[in-house]
Write a structure and sequence with these properties.
With 163 residues, the chain is mainly α. Helices cover 80% and strands 0% of the residues. It has 8 helices and no strands. α3 (33-57) packs antiparallel against α4 and α4 (61-87) packs antiparallel against α6. The longest helix has 27 residues, at 61-87. The relative contact order is 0.10.
Length: 163
Amino acid sequence: MMDKLRRALSGNDGGDEERGFVAQVVESSSLGWGTRVKGFIACFVIGIVLSIIGSVCLFFGSRGLVAFSVFYTTGNLVALVSTCFLMGPINQCKKMFSPTRVVATVLVFVCLILTLLSAFLWKKSGLALVFCIIQFLAMTWYSLSYIPYARDLVKKTVSTCMG
């Protein structure tokens, strides 16, 4: 079962002759599966902890809103990078910019940048909060793209609730 999961996440379906020389070299010099899982778990937990710290900062007034924006955005970035441990950075980038995910991926990165710009450059804490909310929704939509039929289920549920 772990081999199937490993092949699915790495994009390797067993066809070594179809892969290029560079891909074989990168795979042979990469981290072992156990190390990848530990790296994923560590980064993902750190990302969640940063997001929770950011949420606590919401209770500290307007300065807390800026801290929330920074911690929440950093937490999302770290959680997003955590999946690179499972798939590898090149495969992760390929999957992120596949046709089914490209809009969600671009929206996530635009919101990450706009959140930080509104917190530091424009110093608009309310705008930073709006971008954090959009960031959350974009990250959720992006994450749902990895679960078969999850986006369709959400669309049907929202359309049923709205109409």
